[in-house]
Amino acid sequence: MNARLISRGFHGRRQEPAEGKNLPPGQYLVEDFPVLSAGPTPHTPLANWTFTIDGEVDEPKRWTWEEFQALPRETITTDIHCVTHWSKFGTVWEGVSIDTLLDGVETAASYIVAYSDGGYTANLPLEDMTDGQAWIAYAFDGEPLEPEHGGPARLLVPHLYFWKSAKWVRGLRLLGEDEPGFWEVRGYHNYGDPWKEQRYWGD
Ligand SMILES: Nc1nc2c(c(=O)[nH]1)N[C@H]1C(S)=C(S)[C@@H](COP(=O)(O)O)O[C@H]1N2
Ligand SMILES: [Mo]
Questions:
Q1: Please, what is the end-to-end C-alpha distance for the chain in angstroms?
Q2: Disulfide: which of 137, 147, 169, 179 matches 156 by Cβ 3.0-4.6 Å?
Q3: What are the tens digits of pLDDT across the range 156-179?
Q4: Whose CA is nearest to atom 1 of ligand 1?
Q5: Taking the domains of the chain in order of start, what are their residue ranges?
């Protein structure tokens, strides 16, 4: 007699695959890493790269590439979910937490617009960017982030659909009023929670 078969029969159903509980509704898993870009890939030399926090802040903050590299770095292992239905499990990034960047910034703002080389923007509530929920990532799988995937640095906000994770990001603007970004003014949901399938306005 096979004990495994007996216990399986006893419970009366197959065990759910582990991915079941981690895959948001309407998503499928990919092993590769698709590239989704609305325009050409910018190539900003690192010598010209800066990262800026501005808008409704007591004093804007700005880092050069060198200064940015000197900030405390974190390794993030996370699942990512694109609104076009693909998800990828266990992606590994390195970057700087938004908490680190906002440390010491005085603001009454409740919203953020992330802005990128090439003109892309994405809006998020400030509270979705803090408490270890968002990073500026500059490495993927232990290698410098490839330009196609947003290098030299991109926003990483894995708990929202991946369009919020602006590639080639150059700054965060803190705002008192919400300001829909590139895809949000083109019909994507303003918030974009993959677990609630907030793909489009009205979802
Ligand atoms: N600057 C910029 N950021 C962007 C995009 C873009 O077109 N431009 N596409 C978004 C979308 S829709 C997705 S799914 C992810 C794709 O990231 P990837 O190309 O690294 O997979 O980047 C997001 N960030
Ligand atoms: Mo996407």
A1: 51
A2: 137
A3: 999 999 999 999 999 999 999 999
A4: 167
A5: 48-196
Residue ranges with CB less than 5 Å from ion ligand 2: 36, 82-83, 163
How long, in residues, is the chain? 203
Any residues with CB less than 8 A from the CB of 151 and at least 6 apart, and which? 138, 144, 145, 168
Single-letter amino acid code for the residue at 82: C
- Best probe residue, ligand 1, of 36, 91, 141 (max atoms within 8 Å of C-beta): 36
Decide which of 3.90.420.10, 3.40.30.10, 3.20.20.10, 3.30.470.20 is the CATH code for 48-196.
Answer: 3.90.420.10
**63-103, pLDDT tens digit by residue?**
999 999 999 999 999 999 999 999 999 999 999 999 999 99
Q: Which atom of ligand 1 approaches the CA of 83 most closely?
A: 14
Quote the Cα angle for 201-53-102, to 5°.
95
pTM, full prediction: 0.92
For β-strands 50-55 and 169-175, DSSP reports them as parallel
CB 38 less than 6 A from any atom of ligand 1: yes
pLDDT of residue 21: 78
Q: What count of Cα atoms within 13 Å lies in the side-chain half-sphere of residue 42?
A: 21
